[in-house]
Every structure is written in structure tokens, then in C-alpha cells.
Amino acid sequence: MDQLSEEIRQESPWTMMFADDIVICSESREQVEEDLERWRFALERRGMKVSRSKTEYMCVNEREGSGTVRLQGEEVKKVQKFKYLGSTVQSNGECGKEVKKRVQAGVAMGPRQASFLVQPVLAVFVLIISVCCLNPDDPNVCSHWESYAVTVQESYAHPFDQIYYTRCTDILNWFKCTRHRISYKTAYRRGVRTMYRRRSQCCPGYFESGDLCVPLCTEECAHGRCVSPDTCQCEPGWGGLDCSSGCESGYWGPHCSNRCQCQNGALCNPITGACVCTDGYQGWRCEDPCEPGYYGKGCQLQCQCLNGATCHHETGECICAPGYMGAVSPIY
């Protein structure tokens, strides 16, 4: 098996071989599928068979959206644990109970030896050490092809001196003469082959956070969030490149992009845009003076004028009817 797999086998721990089982470790689902296909092609062309039913894979530290592993379009069975070389390996990384059980069993068995049944069909266990959950369809995920070198055993035509005999007139050698010719035979030598694999990574301006590619803002968004590279989305009432500046008078909302619609000197709330009316005015835009008989802030104060006099809607000052004079101080 070592000689058959020499051209595709990687160093430990990425490839581990035990009897008729093979463990393939990889950092991504895509790389697992590529490695599986390479092993299948290399082994089956030499007359061996990769068991589809016994081939399993397990993810460690799996996140949502990790997808499935396929071999020639057929989905490989996923397991949460599998027993290998007498120990149970779990997807959550725990194995303390299994180790304890094996130690106890070994003590109970004493000097006796346990026999193991070796299956005649090759089984491939795939262990994904750290599943990369980046979605290749995510517009923030970019992919590229990278090259890597693998050591392979390649065949070539090796020349050698072949001796053969022909009939001739040499009576001393019983009419048999020795001849030489250059012939070729198949030999093997180590070589280096360049392979290619696709790698997924976050596009420029984004960085990987868990299973997502999130945008990177050079300046921290003080009152907002980063929505694209170096672009902050400010909370209402804040503006500026990093959302650290409050809205100027007359503007409100996210990035202070909305112009206030308030009238009669009223101010607007920088967050909601609601008008804060000056004394003597009311309405959504502070466009209406107080109703007759009322004045002041919010038009909540009642006029104190007598004899049919009216009061100013802002100050409450009495405006006497004809034939009257005097003033009544407004009540605040």
C-alpha cells in the first residue's frame, strides 16, 4: 500500500494509514473532496476499490452551513463519532471516557491479547479538522487557485545493454555469435508534480469572523456599524466618516442627511426629526400659532386677560379691547 499510494500520500497527520484503513485530514470540505477523488483514481486504476458504504467523514468544531462531502456525486455518510484503532473519536473533540474505558478493559484482560477482524475492502475515514464554512456564493468571498507540489513515482524508459545470440560462421562457438543492442525497460523514479486546488478567502476589505466575511473599517464607527470596507452606517443623529459628529442645526437622521421641516424658529430632534416648537406655536411642523385663549410653551397656558381682551400667543401679554386699558401679568 505504501508503494501504491506514494504519489498521492501526504505527510502525517494529513494522511495516516493503518492496515487497510486510510485517514485523510483536511482544513476544508472542498479540499477533502479533491483528496478523496485523487485517492479513488490512484487506487482504482491499480485494481483496488474504495468502499462507498464504509467511507465516512466527521467534522470537528463544525459550524452551520458546512455542506456535505461527495465522492463522484454520491454523498458520503456523515457521522458524529467513529471507532478507530480501538478508540472512539468524537466530533466535539472529547475522548476521555473512551480512554478510561480502554484502560479499564486492558487491566481486566491482563496478559491476554485481543484479536481484531481485518476487513478485506479498503475503507476511507475522512476527518475534517477545521471546517471552513465560507459560502462560495457569498459576494464577499473570493476564491483563487493555488499550486502545491507533491512527490510522485513516475515511470520512464530505462536503457540497458541487451545480449542476444545469432547464428554465424564461427565454428569455435558452434556457429553462435554474441551480439549487443540497446533496449529499454520500464523503471520508476521519484518526481515532483505540481497540483492545483481552489482556496476560498474573504475578498479585499473583508476579514473572516467565525463563518462570515465581515467588512473592515480602518476607523472604528463610533455611533454606527461598518457596512462595507471603510464605510460606516451611522445611527440617527450622528454623521461624519466615523459617525463621531453630532448633526448640525437644521439636519437630522442617519448621517444627518435629512433637512428639518420645522417652522417659526423651531428646532428638530437630531435623531427622530420631531419638531420642538418655540413658545406660542403648535403642530407637526410648528406651523400653527396657539388657539385663542392659550399661549406659551406647547400652548398649555391659559390667558388671564379680562373684558374680552385677547393675549399674545407667544408671551401671553394682553391685547385690550377698545375702551379698556391695563395689563395682566402672564402666569408661568
TrEMBL record:
<dbReference type="InterPro" id="IPR043128">
    <property type="entry name" value="Rev_trsase/Diguanyl_cyclase"/>
</dbReference>
<keyword id="KW-0472">Membrane</keyword>
<dbReference type="GO" id="GO:0004523">
    <property type="term" value="F:RNA-DNA hybrid ribonuclease activity"/>
</dbReference>
<keyword id="KW-1015">Disulfide bond</keyword>
<feature type="domain" description="EMI">
    <location>
        <begin position="138"/>
        <end position="215"/>
    </location>
</feature>
<dbReference type="InterPro" id="IPR057138">
    <property type="entry name" value="EGF_PEAR1L-like"/>
</dbReference>
<protein>
    <recommendedName>
        <fullName>ribonuclease H</fullName>
        <ecNumber>3.1.26.4</ecNumber>
    </recommendedName>
</protein>
<keyword id="KW-1133">Transmembrane helix</keyword>
<dbReference type="InterPro" id="IPR011489">
    <property type="entry name" value="EMI_domain"/>
</dbReference>
<dbReference type="InterPro" id="IPR043502">
    <property type="entry name" value="DNA/RNA_pol_sf"/>
</dbReference>
<dbReference type="GO" id="GO:0005886">
    <property type="term" value="C:plasma membrane"/>
</dbReference>
<comment type="similarity">
    <text>Belongs to the beta type-B retroviral polymerase family. HERV class-II K(HML-2) pol subfamily.</text>
</comment>
<keyword id="KW-0732">Signal</keyword>
<dbReference type="Pfam" id="PF00053">
    <property type="entry name" value="EGF_laminin"/>
</dbReference>
<keyword id="KW-0677">Repeat</keyword>
<dbReference type="InterPro" id="IPR000477">
    <property type="entry name" value="RT_dom"/>
</dbReference>
<dbReference type="InterPro" id="IPR002049">
    <property type="entry name" value="LE_dom"/>
</dbReference>
<comment type="similarity">
    <text>Belongs to the MEGF family.</text>
</comment>
<feature type="domain" description="EGF-like">
    <location>
        <begin position="257"/>
        <end position="287"/>
    </location>
</feature>
<keyword id="KW-1003">Cell membrane</keyword>
<feature type="disulfide bond">
    <location>
        <begin position="277"/>
        <end position="286"/>
    </location>
</feature>
<dbReference type="Pfam" id="PF00078">
    <property type="entry name" value="RVT_1"/>
</dbReference>
<keyword id="KW-0812">Transmembrane</keyword>
<dbReference type="InterPro" id="IPR000742">
    <property type="entry name" value="EGF"/>
</dbReference>
<dbReference type="Pfam" id="PF07546">
    <property type="entry name" value="EMI"/>
</dbReference>
<keyword id="KW-0325">Glycoprotein</keyword>
<dbReference type="Pfam" id="PF23301">
    <property type="entry name" value="EGF_PEAR1L"/>
</dbReference>
<feature type="domain" description="Reverse transcriptase">
    <location>
        <begin position="1"/>
        <end position="89"/>
    </location>
</feature>
<keyword id="KW-0245">EGF-like domain</keyword>
<dbReference type="InterPro" id="IPR052485">
    <property type="entry name" value="MEGF_diff_regulators"/>
</dbReference>
